[in-house]
Amino acid sequence: MNPDVLDLARLQFALTAGGHFLFVALTLGLATVVAVIQTVATIGRKPLHARMVRFWGQLYVINYAVGIVTGIVMEFQFGMSWSGLTHYAGNVFGASLAVETIVAFFVESTFLGLWIFGWHRFNRWVHLAMIWVVTLTAYLSAYWILVSNGFLNHPVGHRTEGGKLVLDDPVAVLTNPSALQAFGHILAGALLTAGFFVAGVSAYHLFRRSPEWEFFGKSLRIGVFLAFPALMVTAVFGDIQFAALRTLQPMKSAVFSQKTAEIAQLQADMVARFGPGEYVPSEAWTRGGGLVMLICFALMMYFTFAGVILACFKKVVFRFRLWHLALMAAVPLPYLAMISGWVFREAGRQPWVVYGLLKTEDAVSGLSPGAMRASLIVFTTLYALLVVLNAWLLARYARRGPAADSGLGHDDRAADENPADSLPATSY
Asked: What's residue 413's pLDDT?
């Protein structure tokens, strides 16, 4: 395998998968937030809660619509750049990818469309059920993706026939600890991302003395009170995965911990087992990704703990402008933590694409460096444009606030129902 093709293929998949992950994190978390708020709105029937559903639902739809394009483009690479992987292990991990496609594109997208265009057309309980179907199928979609990824990190439930892997124990694949632990970690991280996003957008409007003070005061508290427990659950699942590395991927654990003697011993063992080669992953990416993730966690822990305390005081929510600035600045933190954690997870298993079974260099398609370079340029450009487009759309509609037409149903609330001057001046 031409080393240039290998490096370019790895870089391309890293950029596209990482770019797609940015969308997934917010989509999963924000769908849950919208579903819960709509549940409260459906039961309590308060106009303010209904408006919150429309506003945050609009931002969710934007992120979902742009993000789903990145998912389609990313999956093209399995056939284009990684044919060795699909030929060798596609019979096992390909099934879960196929199920994920059915769930995401047929079920989730269908019910999301019904939810978007179903305002005032369906019974309110039916409409509520639709957003919960969307949310739960989004969870299922994430689960099936992690079943595939978990198999690559810890291959179980397979046997070899004719030099290829075939499915032998579906239950073992579906209950793979590498998949289940990551699934809990990702879901909690997605809620964390949504909490920071909701709090940051709300802080922006409160900082600018928005007339929608009640709307964004409630939203800010939702974001803050969601972020803290989500961070704790994320940390628990992260700690479980760190502990499991000692058994599942001891080399990654040793590199992160900088245990030189253990690294040398593991390298010798793997040479004796698999033949000559370099079996130590890049310390810069493996340890660097893990350290950045832990630093982000520490920052978010202090940030969310202080936020929970501050959010208990109504005047602080509306008057503490320095806190508002901090909340806005903190929005990228969970994104950075999740991307660096993903780098740690994926870079740390090198040189394997299927751990202990198939090396990355043997999984790459037989492409020329020129073709791979052209593919990298096209994919990277497309993803960069999509990320910029998504950021611009989210920023634009977030700044407009709930007074703007959301496109998710007519807002028939009276204009004077929540007047700006109803908040006493002393509350600012």
From this structure: 41
What are the tens digits of pLDDT across the range 190-246? 999 999 999 999 999 999 988 888 999 999 999 999 999 999 999 999 999 999 998
CA distance between the termini of the chain: 65
How far apart are the C-alpha atoms of 249 and 72, rounded to whole Å? 30
Task: Give the count of alpha carbons within 13 A of 154, CB side only.
Answer: 24
Angle at 339 between CA 71 and CA 262, to 5 degrees: 120
Q: Is 360:6 a contact under the CB 8 Å cutoff?
A: yes
**Collapsed DSSP state (helix, strand, coil) of residue 160:** strand
Q: Show the tokens assigned to 42.
A: 């459906």
Q: Note the pTM of the prediction, 2 decimals.
A: 0.89
List Cβ neighbours of 16 (8 Å cut-off, separation of 6 or more): 70, 73, 74, 77, 379, 380, 383
Q: Residue 81 region, left (φ>0) first, then alpha (ψ -120 to 50), else beta? A: alpha
Tokens of 385: 């444009």
Say if CB 130 and CB 114 are below 8 A apart: yes
Mean pLDDT of 145-171: 92
Q: Peptide bond before 351: cis, by omega within 30 degrees of 0?
A: yes
Report the distance separating Cα 186 and Cα 24, nearest Å.
10
Residue 423 confidence (pLDDT) = 34
Tokens (6 digits) for 31: 């769908």
Residues of the chain with pLDDT > 90: what percent? 63
Residue 419 has pLDDT above 50, yes or no: no
Domain residue ranges of the chain, discontinuous segments joined by +: 191-347
Rounded-to-integer distance, Cα 134 and Cα 112, Å: 6
